[in-house]
Amino acid sequence: MRGKRLDFVFWRALFTGRKVLPAFLGVVLMTLGISGTACALSARCPDVGEETVVSREAGKGQVLSLPGCWDAEKILLFEPGYGKVYLGKERQEISAEAATDLTGWIGQTVQVWAESGKRLPDVTILQGSALPALFLEVDAARLGKINHDKYQSITEGRAVYREADGSVGYAGELTQLKGRGNNTFAYPKKPYQLKLKEKVSLSGLRRGKTWVLLANWNDLSLIRNQIVLDLSQETGLRYAVGCQQVDVWINGSYNGLYLMTEKIQITKDRMNLQDLEEETRRVNDQPVDSYRRYLEKGGELLDLARGYRIPNNPEDITGGYLASIEKFARLRDYSIPGFRMKNGISVRIEEPTCPSQEQVDYLGRRMDEALTALSAADGRHPETGKSYHEYLDSASFALKMLIEDFCKNYDMLGGSQLLYKDADRVDPKIYAGPAWDYDLSFGMMKDRGAKPTGEYVLSPNFSKRNIYQIFWGQEDFREETGKIWKQTFRPALEILTGETVGEGKLRSLAEYREGIRNSAAMNARRWGTNSGAGHLAGNNFETACAYLENWIRQRIDWMDANSRD
Questions:
Q1: Peptide bond preceding 434 in cis form (omega within 30 of 0)
Q2: At residue 20, does pLDDT exceed 80?
Q3: Helix, strand, or coil here: 527?
Q4: For a FRET experiment, which of 148, 242, 298, 551 has its CA 20 to 30 Å from that of 215?
Q5: What pLDDT, in 10s, does the model give residues 357-395?
Q6: Residue 210 bridge partners (DSSP)
Q7: End-to-end Cα, the chain, rounded Å
Q8: pTM recorded for the entire structure
């Protein structure tokens, strides 16, 4: 309907010559996410940098969102279209030439007056928490396109990343901005992937060019993903993903509070595995994605296999691989390379992004051998004689199982169970991890895992295609899980509940909450309240955080009483 209305207004303006074009432009600007208010205030903090933020239309007024790293006493505030502008009942003059102290107006709705005495839309002035600020400058028309199609991308722009103290973490070219995610991309607040021109370490995270911005639309507490990613680091899950809460402005307009994470990828700085994709490129004359795709069904070993018919392979194709256990139906997507095993477990190959037929077959055979050994009563493959420990790193699977079970991850079997394998000459085992995708955890979903008590990963409801239940059939794995719970996992939870103070990234629930409180308020004003997400786990930031903390404490109590000895 919106598209038809835009077409009508455009053609009417074009052929009648009437003054409809401004209205049409206003609709277009709002569609692109650009403020269309009659008065748009702009602000800078020259003591910190030259970045400018602009207000957004909000009902009959406007909202101006300021970075937490700015000094609110030294703000240059101006409105380019009205000359002099005055704020408040006292009509204090503001300008781009003299700093204005906004501290008394933070969190307030303030009257705005033009020099002529005309009353302009009121402005609500907000300031974020003491967090980094990310400023992205991109083409507005392209931004509208990527917000509607995650396969579109912006390939040029500028990015400035300011740390919480205002120092520059990065200032330079932006070489890619695109949408990401599956279901999460359908929500109004879009998650993004961005790529910088150079490798950098932002907020102490591992160096890289590519970064992910998680929108956390479903999670009104905005901290579920952060808690689990930090917990996975604290408990020693190898290649655990680093993350940082960040306020984001796009073209000067506040776009919300995001969790910026390292991208899970095979690189020396992120996941230091053999780069099989690069080695495959080197031995072929054409780009690997230019070769024909293939699909085979009903094979002797695999029910389904999909990849690329690449003519040449490196001498060693035993690694590295990054893969994920997917939903059964998702592997029907023609574009997804991977395989489905005879037991119904579907595996997507994430890297190499264009695996050859030989590489798909190799990983499929390896997984089949591993699970055959794991399913045997004595834990050994009946033909190779190898123990499942020779195929699988049981400690990583035990720790990952505890993570999934503790937070009752709704997507446990839905595409985020990552696996990786290096070349045999480095390490022949398949590992679980890294941990990823926890916005629908900790009792978020009414139809599964809502209560903090009871079995979850080992529930009979998950018996089909559940790799952790296959592991649980081995007595030594059960013993290993109990040992990790007592020695590693349970002490980490004491940091989360505030009983002890950690030395790593993991913090108490109170610290997570208070660390983003002001930015959460700005995010709520930008996006409103997602009523679909709040049906169970609170209906705003405060109630969502209270629900989360209460749920976690009850879950810990239940797991203490039912510890896996």
A1: yes
A2: no
A3: helix
A4: 551
A5: 999 999 999 999 999 999 999 999 999 999 999 999 999
A6: 195
A7: 59
A8: 0.91
